[in-house]
Give the backbone structure.
Amino acid sequence: MSTDTDEGLFGDIDLGWEHTKNKLFLGLIFAASMFGVVMLALLLLDVAHTFYVGLTEFNISLVQFFTVDGSRRPELAGFRGAIIASVMLMLFTAILAFFIGLGTAVYLEEYAPDTRITRLLEANLANLAGVPSIVYGLLALAALVNGIGTGPILIAGSVALALLVMPIIIVSSQEALRAVPDSVRNGSYATGATKWQTIKEVVLPAAMPGILTGTILALARAIGETAPLLMVGALFTNRMPFGPLDRFSGMPTQIYGWAAEPSQHFIHLAGVGIVVLLSILLTMNGVAIYLRNKYETEV
Amino acid sequence: MSTETDQGPGITSGTGAKADQKANRRARRVLFGCAAITVLTTLSIFFVLIDNAASYFFGARITEVLVGGSFEQTITFTEFFTGTRWAPDHSTPAHGILPIAFGTIAITVGAAFVSIPIGTATALYLSEYSSKSVRSKLKPTLEVLAGIPTIVYGYFAISFINPVMLGPIAESLFGISIGRYSMLSGMIVVGIMTIPMVSSISEDAMQAVPDDLRNGAYALGATKFDVSLNVVIPAAVSGIFASYILAVSRAIGETMAVTLAAGFNANITANPFSEIMTMTAYMVSMARGTSAVGTVEYQSLFAVGLVLFLMTLVMNLMNDWFKRRFQEEYR
């Protein structure tokens, strides 16, 4: 190119505007991406602020908060029963959802032939993941609480939560199983192992860290769910549940009970409850990330 | 995997091998049983909702009719789908679902106005513009946003968005004093909580667009702006739409945030600062009372639940269709 670029081919095109347009656009989408971050910061600040005001102006004692059950009088109310109930809910949810979820994932990844029935199972799974959580509550309400006649007990809440998180556990387990290389399976077959022996002794141990990570994340989702528990008939004032057949109120339902009250004292109790709930969620996510990082490089 | 180890030639299949094969077949049956439970769940949802909704419309559950009860239409479908007053538990009851359906649709549309532009812009920034280090920080931050329980968003609405953000605006610009609940705060929080869905799925779709297309456009002298808007977005459009549908479906079924943010007053209004009620909020308000089996309040839960379930089902099927198209495009 030996032509003088000042008077070049594109001399009449205003590149200045193109540059400004690009800069403006970048500014716009950068601002938009920061919107979510700013909102997250505002949300956390708001919760921290109510927590602080609750402790200082409303004299909410953290010791009392962790050692006393709920009460109709805000100055006597605590969170103990709700924490215990949530831990129990999570335990039963884990037992109910883990084995069935893992079994389904193993069937779909290792055994399922490519037939219409398999495609139906997969499509059904995608649909179940999109069912609103409150509908699972209705299912437990009609089938267990009033159908079998169990009444609004803790285990009915666990069933609703287990059905809710099952698709999440299945999908994450499928991903973990898919990440196990086929050469590992073929090695096992070459020694004369059956498919089930291969799965049990080789594939599952290799995929287990991934499966556990997904399960913990799913349980973190379950512990924050409110609507299914409300439909099942959770209490509005938490008390210590004596076993899985007792009535209950979990952490989120108690937070809702408090937040829906007109009294500012109750609203600040809800703020303190949210801090406890978020700390537990943070811990669970931390454990999941730790597991993932620790076992990521193996296999 | 088609490497099923049948007893091959040359291997003497003793009783041990036979037992192993038997265990294998048994495991396969048990695992299929696990998978069947997921189908059973869907069927039970359908059955429970339709069965109990029948008692709302016809005065008797289908299962009761089978053992000798009789149908007697109490609420007509015309009243249900076209009535403009919703008060099944009132002393002069009215059974028009329109006010609470309006509430749900208004929140969904309002939330879409927040999550769709911001989510798409975030996806574009992450996929096309951001440096690796910014991306590695921004993505996990947005994932945190997706992991926060919905009850916390509801709390954020009544303790911050409504009184601190919207209150002064409504007061100074429109002279309306805002109550504890408002439709707009519901739209905003649901919008915020669905941003990560739009951004992460749209970004996946944009990342799947092959670089050849981008380079082709650059070779023609296109700027990054042109490439983003005229090449990447059109090429990823079905994945982007799938993310929109998922966000909308989530907003329809969203319960705790809208219950706390938008309130319990079933009415059709254009005033964004007024209190409304969504279908899910109605269900929560009925669960809050002592709605005993057999009362019309209890039965109405399932009628509303059925409508809600069908709305999200349609969304999920559409999402499935878009996703399949998106997967076929460049593979």
Notes: Chain B has a mean pLDDT of 86. Chain B touches chain A through 92 residues (CB under 8 Å).
